[in-house]
Amino acid sequence: MKKEEKQNRRKEEKINTIIGKGTYIEGSINIKHSCRIDGTVKGKITSGENIIVGEGGFIDGTIVSDRVVVSGKVLGQIYASSSAMFSEKAEFDGDLKTMKILIADGAIFNGKCEMIKKSELKNN
Known about the structure:
mainly beta, 9% helix, globular
C-alpha cells in the first residue's frame, strides 16, 4: 500500500466530531477534520476531510467535503472533491458533484450527478 493510501485510510478511520442521534442542528457547520452525523442537520456542512451520514442521519441542505459516505438520508447538494459513496441503505435526492462515485445495490439515488476532473478542483 502506498504512503498516500495509508494516510487517506487513517483519515477515513478517525472521526473528530460526532453529531449524535436525537441531535438537531440548523445553520452552517464548518469542521476542519472528519464528522459523523447520526442526528439531523438542516443547513450547510463543510469539512476538510470526511462527512459520514450514518443510517439514522438526515441532512437537508448542502455537504461540502473531500469524501462523503451516506448510509442515511440526504436532501440537497453534495460536493465531494474526491469521492462519494452511497451504501445499500442510503437515500439521496439532489445534485452531486464528485470525481468518483460508488452506489451500492439497494441505495436510492434521485437527482443529477456531475463528474468532475482533478483539473477542475482548483476552480471550485
